[in-house]
Structures are given as structure tokens and as C-alpha cells.
Amino acid sequence: MKGHKDSLFAGLDVSTQGCKLLVLNKDRKEVVSVDSLNYDQDLPQYKTQNGTVQGLKPGCSESDPLMWIEAVDVLFQRLKQSEINQEKIRCLSVSGQQHGLVALDYQGKLVRKTSKLWNDFSTAEECEILTQAVGGKKNMLKEVGNSQKTGYTAPKILHMLRNEPENYQNTVSFMLVHNYINWYLTGGVNVMEPGDASGTALWNPKTKQWSQKVIQAIDPSLKNKLPLVKSSRRTIGSISSHLVRKYGFSPRCKIDAGSGDNMYGSVGTGNIKPGVLSISLGTSGTAFTILKEAYVDPSGEIACYCDSTGNYLPLLCVSNLSNGYNQLQKKYRISHEEFTQIIKQTNPGNRGRLLVPWYTGERTPDLPLASPVYFGFGLNDFTKKILCRAVLEGHILNLYQGVKRMPVNAQQIRLTGGLSRSEAWRQAIADIFEAETIPVLGEGAALGAAIHAAWVYGQEKGERLSLEELTSSFVTLDHKAKKKPDPDAVPIYRTLKQLFDAFTQRVRGKKGEDPFLIHHRLKSF
Q: What is the pLDDT of residues 439-456, one digit of tens each?
């Protein structure tokens, strides 16, 4: 491998819980290396749990950005020691967890030791302040195409200004996670691109401009602390001489603009044209599709993002997805396979026993103070079987309730993430969404980043290789694990979806159908 002359391209995925490096050989059309590390296990000196520092106030979720840099260094060192010839890597692209706020001073040092992450709920008050400052949610949607949510970057910046004014004043540049890694890789290049910039709630995906009204509502001088937004379809520079010397990269290795993990998750599932829905089943749950025109959801629940190819990526994110399931597995000490067998012993619809899985607050619907709710359970119903079915259906129903607002009627759903390996999850999603499900084999966002790097590099070299050709070569669908909707389960789930809607509306103090009547109908199935 060390002497092979083929062109290599790399993708780095810097996620919440770990970091992954994937290298592909474009000419041989194969992934030649995948390496990953888990922050908790492999970098114990940072004392994280699920990738986040401990001992913070309720609702706070933060990580040390230096941990991400060290993770990248560890993976680069392993690459250097492997059989892969890192000198043949032509271009590298970074996928980063979205919305995290990194603040640097004029020396390029961290102003704040930790970075607030996408799942930090401590900025609810700042969201309300910003929304009122521009005249309400409707005006906010006009300004940035999105409502203000605690996960986004704008309220994080305002939170720093209000609570840590000295840190704010000492900040020269605010960055997102993948921008910070790019800054490290290039030795100082600081730019954003449209995909990740969309999730700042400071930049409008439709007009492709910073919102002056939102900036003014925070601080007029904030504009000077924000980087330029440049095309996602270009490289931003070459890898730094420091990394060339330390890890043996070629000084001609380019760094792609990079993007958020959702944008590259789309590329990594081959979802690059309208008509396909991708669902990522991880710590959080995301669902996204591709559109040619921007879609602004009047409720603000569906995010309006640019993708990494020049199109748009309407996206739904729920904060609670695998957390309830993981805790259930831990409590009963059951594997994916054992869980599937338990589900096969229960009935779809769970006879109306419903779980609303808002365990840690929820992003969609936008309820940062929410808690889980159980409905329809009798005195003897808190058993392992019933709870397993309730957890499975509750998480998927919560996801479906948001997805149905999206302007897509997909006949096929592509699944990624750990839970896509579960037969029970694949079948329940097919039944509830009434669409065929098929898992995508491979590495998701890291693969998408590497494919994007190959595509961008080729464009700049005048090659005519299309992105569709690249995804066809590297994205593998697991057709053996495909699931179609069960015709016997679909009518039950249609009623269960009505129950979930009616009950969650009542919980939120809104009018709707009587959930008790719907529950009564379900018990007759």
C-alpha cells in the first residue's frame, strides 16, 4: 500500500462522543482505512461521559475543544504508523457536530476552556430575548429562515455576552466545531461555508447573508468576530507545514471547506437528489432530504439549511432517540437481538400504551424543559415487554410527528447510525412511516466527508466525475436488511399516530382530539 500511486482522499468526523478518520481510494473505488476513537475511553484525561464534561449545571452540555484536536492528532499518528501512504492523500474534509461554539482570542487560544454543544439547553432565555428583539417568531423566520433554538449558535453567543462579558470582549473569532478543526489543519484559515453557517441562526440560507437584525440584537460589533462565508464546493487552503512535518502528509494536500455532520451524512447515504429521506439513529435523531429550493417551515420546527453541494437540506432533529433505548438495554441487560425477540412477542400499537420520550428536554417540538410522559398504562403494565414496545414506538412516533411537516413523500428511507442494525427498529420505522427502509452500510458522515473531498478536488482539477458517480461507487445499501411496511400493522399505527398527536397537543396545552377516545379505539385492535 505504501508504494501505491492511486489518489487517496480522507474524511474526518468530529462528533459528540468520538472521532473517526476514513480514507478512500478514488481510483480503486474502495475504502482503504477506517479508524476511530471514543473520547471517554481513549482520552480519559478529559474525564468525559458521552463526550461531555461532568459537573455542570442542569441543561448544560460542553466539551473541551482541545480534546477534539488531540483526537485528530491520535488518528493522524495511527495513520502514519499504518500501511496507508498518507503522502498520497490529495484532499481532506472535516465533518463536525453542528452548532458548537468555539471562541478564540487574538493569539489563537481558547477564550473559554469548554465549548457549548448542540445539546446544551441553557440558553432558552436568550432564544426568547432574540426572538422578541426582531418582533417575534414570524419575523425571525424571515431573518434567518429558522426559529431560535437552544441548540443553535446565536443564543450561545448572547449567553456568553450576558454571563461572561469579559470572555466575549476577549473573543476575536467565533467558530463552529468543523471550522475550528479546519483552522487547526490549515494553520489559521478561518472561514465558514453555507451548510454549517445555516445552523448558527445568524445567517440566512435563502439570502445567504448575515442577519443584521439578529446581530444588532446581540451586539453591533459581533459582525467583526464572525468569519467569511465561502462556497462549500471549494478547498480553503493546504494542510499546515506543522502537520506535514509531524505526520508525513504531502504539503500539496488540500483542505476541503468541510461542513456539518448532517450535510455530510446526506452525502454518505447517497441522498444527494430530491425524493429520498435519510434518518440517522444516534444519540439524537435526525431526518433530512434534499430540495432545490429553500423550505422555511412556518412553525420553525424543520430547520432550513443549505447542504454541501449547492442545494438545500430541510432537517428535523429530535434530542431524544437512542437514550431511552440505551437505558432500557442497560436496565434489563438485553442486546439488539434480544430486544428484537421481545418486540416480536408484543403487538404493534401496544394496545394504546404510549410513551412520550422527552427525557432530557426536546428540540422538536421545541420544549427544552420537557419531561417524559406515560399514557394508557394500567396497574400491571410496567413490564419488560410492554416497556420495550413503548420505548420503540414512542421514539419513532416523536420523530415521525416532526418529519410529517417536511415537504417530502419518500417511498424509501435510508437509515444510518447504530440502531439501523436493529431489525425491530427498521420494521417499526417502515410501519409507522409507511415506507420501505434500508440501512446504509459504512461510516456515514466520515464517508460523506471523504467523498466530498474527492469531488471538490476533482472539480478544481477540471475532472468531470460527478458526485452521483462517487456516491454510487462508495455508498452501499444493505438490501438484505430491507424492510417493507407490514399491511397488518399500518392501520394500527395510523390510529396510534392520531393518539400521539392528540395526547402531545393536550400535554402542551393545545386543543385537539380527545386522546381517551382514540385510546379506547386502539384497545379494540
A: 998 878 999 999 999 999
Q: 10 Å Cβ neighbour count for 376?
A: 21
For the chain, give me the number of helices (H) and strands (E)? 19, 25
Domains identified in the chain and CATH numbers: 8-248+255-263 (3.30.420.40), 322-405+490-522 (3.30.420.40)
Bridging pattern class, strands 173-175 and 8-14: unpaired
Q: Is 232 exposed, middle or buried (0-12, 13-18, 19+ CB in 10 A)?
A: buried
pLDDT tens column, 244-270: 999 999 999 999 999 999 999 999 999
Residues with pLDDT less than 70, the chain:
1-5
Cβ-Cβ contacts under 8 Å for 447 (sequence gap 6 or more): 11, 22, 24, 31, 267, 268, 474, 475
Instruction: Report which secondary-structure segment, H or E, holds 4.
Output: none
Q: Residue 99's closest CA among 43, 185, 157, 140? A: 157
| Rounded CA separation 376/354 (Å) | 6
Do the beta carbons of residue 186 and residue 236 sit within 8 Å?
yes
The single-letter DSSP state of residue 57 is: P
Q: Are strands 476-477 and 436-441 parallel, antiparallel or unpaired?
A: antiparallel
Q: Are 322 and 329 in contact (CB under 8 A)?
A: no
Contact status, residue 483 vs residue 439, Cβ threshold 8 Å? no
What sign for the dihedral angle of Cα 243, 247, 253, 255? negative
pTM of the predicted model as reported, rounded to 2 decimal places? 0.89
**DSSP conformational letter for 443:** -
